[in-house]
User: What shape does this take?
Amino acid sequence: MTNQIKTTIAIVALFTIATIAAVCAILYIGADYQTTEIVLADRTYVPDPPDKRENLVDINTADKKTLMTIPGIGAVFSERIIEYREIRGRFISIHELKEIEGITENKFEKIKPYIVCFP
Assistant: This one.
C-alpha cells in the first residue's frame, strides 16, 4: 500500500471513531434525565423532574392572581411576567424570568421552588 492510501484509511478511521464517540455522548446525555436539555431557537428548555412538578405555578399559563400566590411575586412582578410572556411567547425555561426587570438572581432563587414551565 502506498503512503497516500494509508493516510486516507487512517483519516477515515479517525473520522468514524469521532462520529461514533459523538453519537454515544449524545445518547448518554439524552439518557440522563437530569441533564437533558432541549434547544429551541436561542432558548433552552430544561425539564423539571416529574416528582417536583406537583403544586407548582406554571408561569406559561398562570394569570395575575395565580402568579401572586408565589412568595415574593406581587402585582407588579406578575404583570411584568405576563407582559414578557405576551411579547416573547411561552417561557422555555424558568431561568428566562431573570430577563424580567427586577428579578435578580437572588429573587429568582427564592421563587424557583414554587414555579415550573411547560413549553
About this structure: The chain has four helices and four strands.
